[in-house]
Amino acid sequence: LRWDEKAQLQLTNLSKIYETGRGISEVNLELQGFQKVALVGSSGSGKSTLLAMLAGFMVPSSGEIKINQQKLETLTDEKYRQSVQFIPQKTYIFSGTFRENLAFYEPTATDEAIIQAVELAGLTSLLEEIGLDGQIGASGRTISGGQAQRVALARAFLSRSRNILLLDEPTAHLDIETELEIKANILPLLENKLVFIATHRLHWLSSMDKVIVLNEGKVEGVGSHEEL
Ligand code: ATP
Ligand code: MG
């Protein structure tokens, strides 16, 4: 699956209701082409739930997601997963080398490409400290929440050929200075892609084409940054 200017995404009455009765309900949305969409709304409003469904990681309770008129479930896992780069809210760091963690989605990446991604994600000094072959995770060196988030961003920089990009609070664990530095590297990565960013950081909105406001699992508003 190659997302292009003509590609269409359609969410129809999309719902995911957890056992608690919470989740998202009856989301309707149609998009075409290279759109950059921000998902905003208070904690618990359903941003991560929506992203997990778009990533194909969670099955809707009802309703459907269609890409080019085809139901998401019917696209083979491999075909879809190879087009999507999903950065979840919590970064999964496993026990292994720094290189293995960075190249998790792109195991054939060259050291040169990995080092470039490390630089864009602001991890150069950590790399100098532990090296690509250093162990991190449970049986190696523990890294901070902000460093883990930058590992997630480095993974996204390495997977730049994937043209559906789903970022769940990609800069939430960074201090504002680091955040703005790395944001300048992230913005070019968003071009010519379908992008969804869930965020509480409102400075992202002016870089997005569309803003979707969620409230208690429902879409409360859709519009451009200026309109809302
Ligand atoms: P935040 O800004 O805190 O990340 P969010 O907008 O991403 O919040 P979600 O994580 O999508 O919100 O949660 C939406 C609702 O669904 C919340 O009420 C949450 O408690 C509930 N929820 C999320 N994940 C689960 C789960 N795995 N099991 C049960 N309920 C869940
Ligand atoms: Mg969330």
Percentage of residues in helical conformation: 25-40%
Q: CATH topology of the domain at 36-48 and 80-223, what is it called? A: Rossmann fold
Main beta sheet, described? 6 strands, mixed
Task: Give the class from helix and strand content and strand pairing.
Answer: alpha/beta
Q: What would you report as the Rg, rounded to the nearest angstrom?
A: 18 Å
Q: Treating each run of at least 4 consecutive H or I residues as one helix, how many helices?
A: 7
Model regions low in confidence, pLDDT < 50 over at least 5 residues? none
Oligomer description: single chain
Ligands bound, unique: adenosine-5'-triphosphate, magnesium ion
- Quote the average pLDDT: 95
Which CATH-level-2 architecture of the domain at 36-48 and 80-223? 3-Layer(aba) Sandwich
- CATH homology-level superfamily of the domain at 36-48 and 80-223: P-loop containing nucleotide triphosphate hydrolases
Number of strands: 12
The SSE string, one letter per element, is EEEHEEHEEHHHEHEHEEE
Secondary structure layout:
Layout (H helix, E strand, L loop, with lengths): L7 E10 L5 E10 L3 E5 L6 H8 L7 E6 L2 E2 L5 H5 L2 E4 L8 E2 H5 L8 H10 L3 H7 L4 E2 L8 H14 L5 E5 L7 H14 L4 E5 L11 E6 L2 E6 L5
Parallel strand pairs: 3-10, 3-11, 6-9, 9-10
Antiparallel strand pairs: 1-2, 1-4, 4-5, 7-8, 11-12
The protein binds adenosine-5'-triphosphate and magnesium ion.
